[in-house]
Amino acid sequence: MKSAIKVKVRGLVQGVGFRPFIYRIAHEHKIRGWVENRNDGVIIHAESQKIFLDKFVKSITEKAPLASNIFDIEVIPAVMENFEDFQIIKSESTSDKITDISPDISVCDACLEDMKNQAHRIDYPFINCTNCGPRFSIIKDLPYDRDKTTMDPFKLCETCSSEYKDVLDRRFHAQPVACKNCGPQYELVIGEQRITEFGEILNRSSDLIKDGKIIAIKGVGGFQIACDATNEIAVKNLRTKKLREGKPFAVMFRDVDVLQEYTTLFPQEKKSLETWRRPIVIVQDKGKLAPSVSVGFKTVGAMLPYMPFHFQLFEKLDISAIVLTSGNISDEPIVIDNHKAESILTKIADAILIYNREIHNRTDDSVAISINETERIIRRSRGYSPEPINLKLNVDGIVATGAELVNCFAIGKGKQAILSQHIGDLKNLETLEFYEESYHRFISIFRVKPELMVHDLHPDYLSTRFANDLQFPAIAVQHHHAHIASCMAEHNLDEKVIGISMDGTGLGTDGNIWGGEFLIADLNDFTRFSHFEYLPLPGGDRVTKEPWRTGISLLYKVFDSEFLSLPIPFINEMDKEKANWIVQAIEKKINSPLSSSAGRLFDAVSAILNICTKTKFHAEAPMRLESIAHPGFEAAYPFDFGEVISFKPTIESIVTDIMDKEDPGLISAKFHNTFINTIFAVANQARKETTLNKVVLSGGTFQNKYISSRVERKLMRDGFEVFYQRKLPANDGGIALGQLVIGAKRRELGLL
Ligand code: ZN
Ligand code: ZN
Ligand code: FE
User: Fold this and answer.
1) 477 C-alpha to ligand 3 centroid (Å)
2) What is the CA(182)–ligand 2 centre distance, in A?
3) Closest ligand relative to 114 C-alpha
4) Are 220 and 191 part of one and the same domain?
5) For residues 324-344, b (16+ Cβ closer than 10 Å) or e, as one string?
6) Can you give the residue range of the structural domain that contains 415?
7) pLDDT beneath 70, residues of the chain
8) Ligand 1 centroid – CA 156 distance (Å)
9) What DSSP character marks residue 702?
């Protein structure tokens, strides 16, 4: 007996070869009927014997394409129509319930093989198939069809067209399908010279890199700048030209074997590096790269090739590692436009490699780190964005505008949060333009009608102003509450928890700068259980670039004016007149806001140890302090805790250790351990007083691997249920999700 069913599949099924996959398994299981792409997912009509129908439905989840992500499958009985075959029906735009857009996918092995064998694609660098290739970066609208991508100007040749139409071909309905004869082409620009023959392009590009030159390469989501990562002169030269003195560069390695020669790889790191998402992963460096790559850090941001061109380049090069950093000037968004690249990036690069397909949506490389053998995203962009986060809460029509640094915004669609790609620090006009442009695109592509804007409590953030400038109701959410809610949303928690939020800065409800916060929070509201003792920040915002100011403030708090006679290098080398100004500013409360920030505490200790008194990039002082910490020591310093947490005894002991000429690596470890003990002690106190057992950790400080790995283990060993951010950054890049769910919860409770 034959029967019929309708199968609705929701989730990430567009642009990942889902329909051809359904077609193939339908044939395997003798199914008749059809599959259709709707913008709310994929719908299948299947007719067969019950046993085959069951196997067919089972295969959908078990054998789905690598980059697909099924959120929900619904099977309902249908009326038999006695179809004679199985067909793929053309896409139809049926409603505003849009399905997901696939992130960009790294080139697959089958395509790399085809590059060697398929006549029309031998050495063709824009090869792709239904399982791989550009997606989000080229999509202008949905449903995902070629004419709604930047592949539209390239008319398919006969060969590609027949592949595109052949349901059993690997390139059936692969929207960016292309070959030598009909697809995009590279062009290498060296001064006045323009090279178009690809073999020549490849030779010249690799020669330039071998010669220690710098080239700008148009990547998937924007331009990148490359040079030999083992050539110190080249890397130094790149630093000078890019005006980037201190921040480590990311490095692309030939393959995983080479990577293991240069770095110490743990299993999860290897796994993250090899996924189709191809993020940069921060791993242990063995010190074989040019010193200027990692500028004193013992780690390196490593990645593996993901575009066909990367593989081709490494085949020509006798070099195993190249620096591959974003193609931009200082803090501006990465360049995506060919003309802009030719005018701006020539100041940095000796040659510019462009291609004639437009990048529609800019995406930076994503960055991940492995802590306790789990992947944590710290910058979410290429390969991850715009994959939605599934929630239990209805967030429809809510827009969360994020914070200021490493901004990312979020829009709500039904019970899904769609987070934008990494936008950047909302501090210059170019980044703000990128932000506004992306906002309008997201609203339109995902068919969201904004009803409610949620923004940070800080009135001066550009993201706050943006929210208030639009004509929709807007609400403010406290920064650290949003951090905790972001982590809760990731784990679908909707209850009271102990929220520990540690970061650099966020405006508090008392007007002070918060950042060392223990909250009792739910998705609607929070109370402040405890926090780090306030410390004046003489110079306000300047302290982030000049940790020595915070160092003085902390010493002054602990030792009073006596601190000026402490026999430690930090004080000995200090201009006493300058130190006195700082004390005056604190005393007279001139531009010295009060702060409970964890980030500033790390800054101060880093300065007092004379490790980093002035910074060249964001969070450098805490990062340098972490990088010198000796692992394997349990020793710690004393601290006081209660309603506020005081590090006065900690600092006294640190100064004593410095005077005793203790190893700075040990002092750093002891300080880190103290910080961990503080979190542990206050979490226990909160549990005792509230009987809550769930601890939620968020905030940029938790990107500190030394801290996070130990805090999580210690809390778990003590019976706490511990939640940390994985899919979204613990830093401000994840904050929009928290704002979004707080808005949704308050709306649900009728509190708006
Ligand atoms: Zn492929
Ligand atoms: Zn073709
Ligand atoms: Fe923050």
Assistant:
1) 12
2) 4
3) 1
4) yes
5) bbbbbbeebbbbbbbeebeeb
6) 377-532+729-748
7) 15, 39, 91-99
8) 17
9) G
Cβ atoms of 430 and 333 closer than 8 Å: yes
Both tokens of 338, joined, read: 């060919």
- Structural domain count, the chain: 5
For 171, the 3-state DSSP assignment is coil
In three-state secondary structure terms, 216 is strand
Q: Express each pLDDT in 702-729 by its tens digit.
A: 999 999 999 999 999 999 999 999 999 9
What single letter denotes the amino acid at residue 372?
Answer: N
Ligand approaching nearest to the C-alpha of 127:
1
Cα gap 628→631, rounded to integer Å: 9
Distance from Cα 277 to the centre of ligand 1, integer Å: 14
Count of CB atoms situated within 10 Å of the CB of 189: 20
**Gap from CA of 166 to ligand 2 centroid (Å):** 14
Ramachandran category for residue 591: left, alpha or beta (phi over 0 → left; psi -120 to 50 → alpha): left
Q: What is the pLDDT of residues 501-547, one digit of tens each?
A: 999 999 999 999 999 999 999 999 999 999 999 999 999 999 999 99
The C-alpha angle 15, 20, 26, rounded to 5 degrees, equals 140
Ligand 2 centroid distance, CA of 355 (Å) = 16
Assess whether 588 and 477 both reside in one domain: no
The ligand placed nearest to the CA atom of residue 698 is 3
Residue 383 Cα, ligand 1 centroid: separation in angstroms?
15
> Both 334 and 200 in a single domain?
yes
